[in-house]
């Protein structure tokens, strides 16, 4: 078995630095909101009422929804602009600038802890980072980079490296945030977050290069969704629609779990600030191992097909959610992240199949439209998780919201089974044969594929 691996590092360090900065800011933001809402500065006491924690959860939900919905504007405009001009670096600079300004907003709110309210902080930071793209624009530009620089055969495991870089930085941010808040305070935390984002900007300007490949026939923005719904040969249209549904649900579930998870640990399971940060980091490490080691090994070296990997990953994701929901002791909870070792497969497979079903000159707009659909899913699913947690967080079943994750995992599994059914219905043994048999001239792919 040949284990030679050419990484061709391009955008991954930028993703790592931004994720590190985002991990510090996001986890710090949860605690900053709690410090503003639940702290009585007049008597220097920490309030512990149910309404206090519910208000914190509600503010975090508002923040998360704004950060996920506002990027629709730069994604639509940026996706169309990227396909028209074939450039990614200007979009990266835009989102990094938003990350820097957002961290500075939180830094200012930390300096004036009693003067600037939690709501003002949430609105200002969310609007700035949201309108400059935030995480969705990072993923879109990274996907475009990887698509342009890799063959179709290598794309799945390269997509897993993108997620691994993000999770690696996020994990480090989660680990350091709790330690930094307890030992140095919010001001130091957001100062470091600002510096990390600035370093990523320097790296982009000095180290990242690209060759622009403009689209020959770019679609106007108002026809962007035509790329998703237009007729394609060999069942590729229902396959593309199914995998977009998979990725939208997957992203919404991860976001919704993360939105209430820290509060769930601290409030319902009585974890300390440091313990909650360490446990969140532990989960992120398992997911990072999934994307950096497990998925590349299964995809690249053991030749597992994308759909098979997706089916297995969704089954494990469902079982892991059920296990976590009923874990009431720290020992049981400590074993739950082990199920995340295959969870990253859904992300890698989803992005890989999406980019293989369309031409390179359609990827930017397709991803922009896909993120709009994902944002709609998040607007629906995110409040549902918050509602369920607020109703069950102080009961004997505080992990009830994980049962929602189990249900959505079953939907993902059904979508992968539909893709497999369409593949067999076409008389092919694997989805790669469907792609190979599709005419290149139709704009479905830009080069022959031997593996999907």
From TrEMBL:
The keyword Translocase does not apply. InterPro entries: MFS, MFS_trans_sf. Its main location: membrane. It comes from the Eukaryota. It is a multi-pass membrane protein. GO terms for cellular component: membrane. The chain crosses the membrane at residues 91-113, 119-148, 160-181, 187-214, 235-256, 276-295, 307-326, 400-422. It is found in: Membrane. Keywords: Membrane, Transmembrane, Transmembrane helix. GO terms for molecular function: transmembrane transporter activity. This is Proton-coupled folate transporter. It comes from Rhynocoris fuscipes. The lineage of its organism: Eukaryota, Metazoa, Ecdysozoa, Arthropoda, Hexapoda.
């Amino acid at each position: 078995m040949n284990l030679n691996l050419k990484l061709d590092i391009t955008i991954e360090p930028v993703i790592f630095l931004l994720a590190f900065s985002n991990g510090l800011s996001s986890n710090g933001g949860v605690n900053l909101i709690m410090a503003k809402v639940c702290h009585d500065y007049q008597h220097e006491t920490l309030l512990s009422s149910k309404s206090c924690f519910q208000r914190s959860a509600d503010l975090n939900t508002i923040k998360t929804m704004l950060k996920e919905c506002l990027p629709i504007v730069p994604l639509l405009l940026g996706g169309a602009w990227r396909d028209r001009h074939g450039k990614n670096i200007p979009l990266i600079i835009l989102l990094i600038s938003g990350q820097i300004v957002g961290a500075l907003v939180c830094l200012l709110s930390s300096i004036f802890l009693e003067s600037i309210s939690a709501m003002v902080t949430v609105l200002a930071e969310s609007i700035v980072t949201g309108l400059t793209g935030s995480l969705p624009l990072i993923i879109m530009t990274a996907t475009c980079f990887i698509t342009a620089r890799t063959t179709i055969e290598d794309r799945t495991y390269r997509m897993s490296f993108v997620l691994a870089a993000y999770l690696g930085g996020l994990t480090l941010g989660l680990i350091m945030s709790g330690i930094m808040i307890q030992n140095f305070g919010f001001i130091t935390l957001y100062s470091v977050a600002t510096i990390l984002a600035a370093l990523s900007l320097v790296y982009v300007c000095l180290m990242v290069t690209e060759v622009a490949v403009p689209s020959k026939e770019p679609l106007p923005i108002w026809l962007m969704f035509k790329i998703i719904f237009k007729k394609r040969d060999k069942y590729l249209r229902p396959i593309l629609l199914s995998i977009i549904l998979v990725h939208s649900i997957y992203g919404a579930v991860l976001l919704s779990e993360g939105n209430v998870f820290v509060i769930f640990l601290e409030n319902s399971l009585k974890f300390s600030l440091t313990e909650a940060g360490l446990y969140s980091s532990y989960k992120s490490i398992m997911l990072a191992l999934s994307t950096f080691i497990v998925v590349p090994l299964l995809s690249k070296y053991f030749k597992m097909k994308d759909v098979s990997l997706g089916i297995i990953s969704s089954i494990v994701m469902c079982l892991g959610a059920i296990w976590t929901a009923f874990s009431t002791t720290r020992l049981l909870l400590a074993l739950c992240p082990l199920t995340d070792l295959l969870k990253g497969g859904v992300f890698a497979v989803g992005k890989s199949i999406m980019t293989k079903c369309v031409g390179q000159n359609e990827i930017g707009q397709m991803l922009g439209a896909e993120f709009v659909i994902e944002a709609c899913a998040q607007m629906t699913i995110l409040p549902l998780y918050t509602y369920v947690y607020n109703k069950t967080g102080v009961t004997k079943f505080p992990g009830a919201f994980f049962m929602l994750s189990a249900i959505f995992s079953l939907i993902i599994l059904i979508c992968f089974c539909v893709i497999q059914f369409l593949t067999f219905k076409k008389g092919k043994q694997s989805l790669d044969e469907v792609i190979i048999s599709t005419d290149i001239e139709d704009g479905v792919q830009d080069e022959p594929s031997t593996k999907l």
